[in-house]
């Protein structure tokens, strides 16, 4: 089940100039129409186009379940330039996630992933690297299995490659899956959060993008505040320590 999106409210614009615009994408909103998500009727491209009254071009992608900074170009030529920046690794991306268990203080996950084009995983291995930094750990009185408490970590994830579902697959690989992730996460933890917190959102937030503006050549940093559900779960798990 995907989180219901309230499209009666305008999208939150984080940055806008004559060439680019960035929004804070809600959890559950597709970037654009997809054959693998035929149940969706609203898309970020369509909503932002109607909101601004002009055509917009998504220069990168976020998973449907991921919230946070999503950047668009306002012309086809700028779209090509910014897509090249992403391909060249010239755009710095950072995410926050709430994951199962206590993660290491810092870790570089260098684990190739089989190519996934949205229609299934192929046999082709692609380089995939993610840097992890643990920001906070918590143990809460929430029974799980044979344990009387549950442990979680808030982590900062910085990918240096851009493979499909990279962060989700990397965190599953090191046995610290992102809460709310399906199918890469822990179904028992997801069920626990749904029953105890009435939460069915994936707790992954695209916090920040940093890049050099192609026209002005100035450094641009765009930061997205937490969407409601991510903020609620931070409070429930970590309290006032964040």
TrEMBL record:
GO terms for biological process: enzyme-directed rRNA pseudouridine synthesis; tRNA processing. Keywords: Isomerase, tRNA processing. Signal peptide: none annotated. The keyword tRNA processing applies. Pfam families: PseudoU_synth_2. Responsible for synthesis of pseudouridine from uracil-65 in transfer RNAs. This is tRNA pseudouridine synthase C.
């Amino acid at each position: 089940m995907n989180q219901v999106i309230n499209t009666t409210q305008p999208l939150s614009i984080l940055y806008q100039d004559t060439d680019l615009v960035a929004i804070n994408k809600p959890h559950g909103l597709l970037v654009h129409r997809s054959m693998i998500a035929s149940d969706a009727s609203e898309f970020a491209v369509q909503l932002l186009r109607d909101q601004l009254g002009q055509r917009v071009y998504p220069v990168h992608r976020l998973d449907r379940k991921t919230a946070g900074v999503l950047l668009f170009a306002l012309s086809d030529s700028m779209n090509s330039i910014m897509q090249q920046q992403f391909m060249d690794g010239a755009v710095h991306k950072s995410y926050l996630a709430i994951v199962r268990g206590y993660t290491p203080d810092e870790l570089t996950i260098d684990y190739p992933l089989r190519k996934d084009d949205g229609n299934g995983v192929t046999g082709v291995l692609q380089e995939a690297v993610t840097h992890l930094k643990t920001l906070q750990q918590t143990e809460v009185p929430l029974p799980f299995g044979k344990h009387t408490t549950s442990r979680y970590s808030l982590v900062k994830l910085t990918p240096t490659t851009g493979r499909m579902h990279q962060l989700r697959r990397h965190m599953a690989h090191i046995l610290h899956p992102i809460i709310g992730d399906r199918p890469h996460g822990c179904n028992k933890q997801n069920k626990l959060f749904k029953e105890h917190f009435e939460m069915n959102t994936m707790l992954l937030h695209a916090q920040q993008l940093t890049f050099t503006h192609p026209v002005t050549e100035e450094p641009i940093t765009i930061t997205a505040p937490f969407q409601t559900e991510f903020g609620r779960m931070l409070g429930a798990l970590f309290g006032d320590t964040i």
